[in-house]
Structures
1.
Amino acid sequence: MPTVGLLHPGEMGAAIGAALRGAGTAVLWTSEGRSGATVGRAEAAGVEDVASAAELARRADVIVSVCPPHAAREVLASVEGFEGIYVDANAVSPATARSLAVTAPRFVDGGIVGPPPSAGREGRLYLSGAEAEAVAELFAGTSVDARVVSADPGDASAVKMAYAAWTKGTASLLLAVRALARAEGVEETLLAEWELSLPNLPERSERAAASAGAKGWRWVGEMEEIASTFDAAGLPDGFHLAAAEIFRRSPRHEAATLAEVVAALT
């Protein structure tokens, strides 16, 4: 069974590492330069710490990169010369994925959809590239539903971009709408109308605020990658550039309330 290297186990990466460990796969990571929180997640996932990214690249057959999109190139560069299968499972545009593929001889593009997988909660990993099938086989019988899109790098990222354009894009729009209504002094009237015609929106905007506080800083780059994807397709990119700004202005703490987020936006 191939040995998998994981760079770097945030919440999603640690969940993927735990899923692979549950299937009996040896999973490596490196704590070099990582935070205490990352170390804790890795230990909980049961993955093995090695001395450096270079050591991880020497021992691994497959490397899976799960990091914020702005760090995708840096993470790939940290294992320069790696000759195994490199899976970039980051929220990057198809163009970014294809540019990364040029520098990795055995590149597989990946796009993760859904929450971090766990027992009883499945996540999906879309894959594209010449060796996508081999990567999908690693996750057979795990909580990660690996689906091959095509043999072309960039296609899995296109699925991720289109999916997140809706889920995270609409979350940012809800927050902007609440901020606008409050700035104009009509928030209570808007909420009363929502209760009549769109009763799920008040709760959705509360959830959007909580997510923006906990994860919004990581979504800035993702929204910019989505905007780039729209632009490359000849579509307006302003929706998601604005979404990036919404998340950039959001407070950075997990207990952020809707009132705090709205205040930060205005």
2.
Amino acid sequence: MVHGEQASSRPKPASEAFPDLAEAGPRVPSQCEPHRSFIEEALARGRNAKAIWQHLSDQHGFEGHYESIKRFVRRLRLSEPVAHPRIETEPGEEAQVDYGTGPLVRDPSTGKYRRTRLFAMTLGHSRKAVWLLAWRSSARTCCLLHEEAFRRLGGAPKIIVLDNLREGVLTPDVYDATINPLYRDCLGHYGVVALPAKVRDPNRKGKVESSIGFAQKTPLRGMRFESLEEAQRYLDQWTERWADTRIHGTTKRQVAAMFAEERPTLQPLPVQPFRYFEYGVRVVHLDGCIEVAKGYYGVPPRWIGQQVYVRWDQLFVRILDPKTGELLREHLRQKPGHYRVDARDRSPKTPAGVLHLLQRARSFGKHIGRVCELIEQRRDQYSARHILGVLGLVKKRGFNTVDDCCRTALEAGYANYRIVRTLVDRTPAHGPQLRQVDGLIRELSLYRELIDAKTNDPHGPDRTRPLPPEAPPVGHGQHPAHTARPGAG
């Protein structure tokens, strides 16, 4: 009886399991069998079935079809299964992340049901998983989902194993992958290192792959929700009620119990959240600036014509060396159309157009030229416009008025266009008022002495008496006017 039970437990031969094959007669040997050694060697070198078929047809006179080679190669691969070792990690050491297809949720903008994205983070030791739903995926969305997962876990692991999506990896490479700068800095803020899996190697992150399939098949299959919040709330309740309390098939322990042991080993979360930024590549223009969000920011002159990395947020613009990551310049954000240039990066050369304006300003007056020179020395984005403004005042009010106002501005220490324009506007239209003391105006005492000397002589003016210094000579046949004294005659 025992022998019969043992015999019944053995697998049935193919002829009994599939009677149709037994009736068809013995199996015909494959046309590829004589070339088995060549096919096995080619497969070992990484050649595919198409290349093997073409080579056999050209070099060995193989007359079979391509489908024959495909079936033979398939049987050879199935006959030699490859064992995949189980990856065990220490508590708090590793977490795996991946995306999958989420449930149908009604889109508030269109009113129609729409597929969502299912994000999963699974701890490698305890298999504790966090499932989150999102409408779409992007670099910033990916970082936000990681932050939310860290908060729900109460800490962060040391390593994140991820797929090669562009949200996390710009250039896949098993030895030196290029990580998305925003994603890398976000993980670095939490002390986490990104470790991309090998391309087309899902077994490296098999735990999160199983986690995605588990959530898709069990709580979300065939479900529809009216809002994303409702769907997330339903998924959280299922996670707490069923997923965390299950006995895991590999560890044979409850997930919640293992997570209670792993949680203290996670890295503590920082006090401040990560500050998000945008990034890009820019070419430095000939004026030594780059354009970011319609604003212009200065770069050291040696980078003219070269590419630099740029990161910006609502407050700052940071310009980095693309090779070393060194910070070249940091500027405050400017309004569109405005410039921000460090004093160290200003060009020592004055543009030819500005030199021509300065030459015109000097020709209008000494003080006008000096004010325009001081304006140009500031080398900001408004210098040329302010010089043009001063020259426009000369055209409107005349160079005498403007030159006098420029002298007043220089004496006051405010040599700029706004002050000069204010002084010009306050000057009467008939011209500036003469001052009491000026290089072109003699002292009034000189005129008084001259008048007294001429009017005190009863015999007329004394022609032998020298005139006061700098007094104008009296013309031939002309006499100074005699003014009668009060009460005379």
3.
Amino acid sequence: MKKLIVTIPAYNEEGDIAKVIKEIPRNIAGIDKVEVLVLNDGSKDNTVNIAKEAGADYVISHNTNKGLAKTFKDAVEEALNRGADIIVNTDADNHYNQSKIPLLIEPILNNRADIVIGSREVKNLDHMPTTNKYGNLMGSWFVCKLANLPHVDVSSGFRAYSKEAALKMNVLSPHTYTHETLIQANDHKLTIVEVPILAREVKRKSKLIKSIPKHIIKSLSVIFRTFTLYKPMRVFLVIGGLLFIIGMIPIIRFLYFYFNGAGAGHIQSLIFGTMIVLIGFITMVMAMLASAIGWNRKIIEEILFRVKKIEKN
């Protein structure tokens, strides 16, 4: 028996959550049972009662608002606890077309993917502000290039996960899960594909993005920390190499003056450059240590995956 659970993180979504739940198809080829799990993140409105009335099979609540990343993590955990073989995560604001869930999960059912991204087709979203549109496109390009991911819509929250992919996810970010989980997935050698599913316009302000500059800074912080965790050798070697090159500039400057008989007046360049070169060298040594720690992390993650697998079976 193959079970699909659709998880919906929700915070003060009384206006749209009923439409989202009712649009979820309950009969899908290849799936024996479809259930809906709402993870209420401390809503202060009538989200919980409306979700129950609309047909949610499970409504689980945080006592206080804990943010999207924590809510997503807990929703996935609860879905696994209830025997999900495939998990689809969607938003409660009716941004995504739930009737396309059969299309979203098809690559998993056919064993062609572990994670499927519902691409919002950002280029074709006429209702999205130009700054947001090109910000999304540039962000996706940057993350995909940086993490060696296939070209996907990295900010889309409409996703399907196989049970194995869900068990391997460990969300550590306090802000958002979208970028972190994809970088993790790539590190775990999971297959990621996307299917085009045009997103709808959401007229209310985003609850996650209260300020675009702050959101960009937080997202970049999450990407950098996650990338450092999963690709430490590359990060520290690049930083160390840049410092080494920067440090060599004043050293070369000093040598130029020295061989022209004026080195005595430029000893500061030699001292400064040597300090930077040494810091760069130490950073590159740290790359080796971080790589060794990374191997230890992989072993711990494999153990954690096996423990989770035993618990959820």
4.
Amino acid sequence: MLSIQELKQIQLSRQHLTEKADKLTVCHDLNGFQAQIMVNVFHSLKIRCNENITKENFGDGLVKNWTVRGTIHAFAEDDLGLFRYKRENHPYRSDDFKGYVHHITRQWLLTPERQRHFSHIILDSLKESMQTRDELKEICLQHGITEHELGEMFQQWGGGIQDLCLRGYINYVVQEKKAFALSPSYVPMNEDEALLEMMQRYFTHIAPATIRDTAYYFGCSQTQAKKIMQKLPLMQIEIDSKSYFYLEELKGDYPEIPRCILLAGFDQLMLGYQKKESIYLPEKHIRGIFNLAGIIMPPILLNGEVVGRWRKKNTKMMFELFEDISDKNKKHVESAMEEIFDDIRKTEWVLM
């Protein structure tokens, strides 16, 4: 019988927070990283990798596209066939456009002919080099796109650009400035095969986890999760009257829980398990990390428990605490900060 403390040791190790690895191994093992805010990907890698991760090199070998939970992730380029598996609604490199449908109104807003026309203009412009979003907009304007059509091709939450990503033509470039590049060719996996591989990675590198955790992570029902889980040779252990499932035998010992880890926003340690049952985040502090706007703030993990969040602006670091902590623990937090950042000139502590 494992304790919650031992479970944390296992999960932190498997997520490469205490046993670091190279960048591509980390990305493969954890199914990439949610990437709405690119600095979070950089930080997630920096705290997990045993190589020098810089703002200039962190995106090398990675691409950005829609994957797990239907959200946009940065992941290893050689995983394109896995995450962009075969889909009827977005067939691989199909030119059979049906027109862009708005994700809220579900109305057709861009004719198939015009969408195809400007999609090819975008693809032709990317043959020379990657282009920023604004550069692509300007190119489309030069070719006669209307303001209404421009809004649909470059709609904030998707649009014609997203359709090109989902069909395997282009990817976002993994960097701070929003840009696009032609996608290398790849062979899309079958859906069943791809989902099984993603779940195998989950149970090897994020689990032990409950069925509720699994459904939460994949954005599916527990029934759907169980259906795929039945295809894996999962092992099971009971911890605090809950059943946890995992792959690969557990080791005899794991690294101790660090004094402090400054996790990234949208960190896998928060996204990997059902937030209301998190063993790291007390339920009373959920809204301090998962805000109502859908943003997952960067947590301060102190001795294995979230006690607040942090934010960095230029050379200033602000620590926003959910509860007061000792001066000794504040030094542990600052030590974790110094291991990651070398440009902090001022720190501020705020009790929320």
